[in-house]
């Protein structure tokens, strides 16, 4: 099993934690770390390192909110020191939930690839989707 550390600005991680628990239930080896105003970037990195070390996992994937933001940058610093760590940034709830479900029997690199596909496919223009459905229904009514 791949360990997961979700981190982001303000209450991003804790918000995702409550949503993940509601959808997927309580998760082993999945930690949520908020980067709030009262902690420094160094403190966040220390929390990330502690979370990673507390997991009995051979590989860890950091899932962060904003590419180039402090949580991403601090996770990247850890990744640069450790070949068993990967970082995916710009994550959304569908990606995080699926990370919980898809992390068995794959490598961290494979999980990253799966999550990137989910991220792209979960972005949908619903007006466009309704238009496509409407066109399909119009064809069904024809001869």
Automatic annotation (TrEMBL):
It holds the Pfam family EIIA-man. GO terms for biological process: phosphoenolpyruvate-dependent sugar phosphotransferase system. Keywords: Cytoplasm, Kinase, Phosphotransferase system, Sugar transport, Transferase, Transport. The lineage of its organism: Bacteria, Pseudomonadati, Pseudomonadota, Gammaproteobacteria, Enterobacterales. It comes from Providencia rustigianii DSM 4541. One of its GO terms (molecular function) is kinase activity. Residues 1-123 form the PTS EIIA type-4 domain. It is found in: Cytoplasm. The keyword Kinase applies. It comes from the Bacteria. PROSITE patterns: PTS_EIIA_TYPE_4 (PS51096). GO terms for cellular component: cytoplasm; membrane. This is PTS system fructose IIA component.
């Amino acid at each position: 099993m791949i360990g997961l550390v979700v981190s982001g600005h303000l209450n991003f991680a804790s918000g995702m934690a409550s949503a993940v628990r509601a959808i997927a239930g309580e998760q082993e080896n999945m930690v949520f770390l908020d980067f709030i105003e009262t902690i420094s970037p160094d403190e966040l990195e220390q929390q990330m390192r502690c979370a990673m070390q507390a997991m009995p996992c051979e590989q860890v994937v950091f899932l962060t909110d904003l590419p180039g933001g402090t949580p991403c940058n601090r996770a990247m610093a850890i990744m640069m020191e450790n070949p068993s760590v990967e970082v995916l940034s710009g994550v959304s709830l569908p990606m995080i939930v699926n990370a919980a479900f898809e992390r068995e029997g794959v490598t961290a690199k494979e999980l990253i690839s799966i999550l990137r596909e989910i991220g792209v496919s979960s972005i949908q223009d619903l007006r466009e989707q309704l238009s496509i459905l409407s066109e399909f229904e119009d064809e069904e009514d024809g001869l």
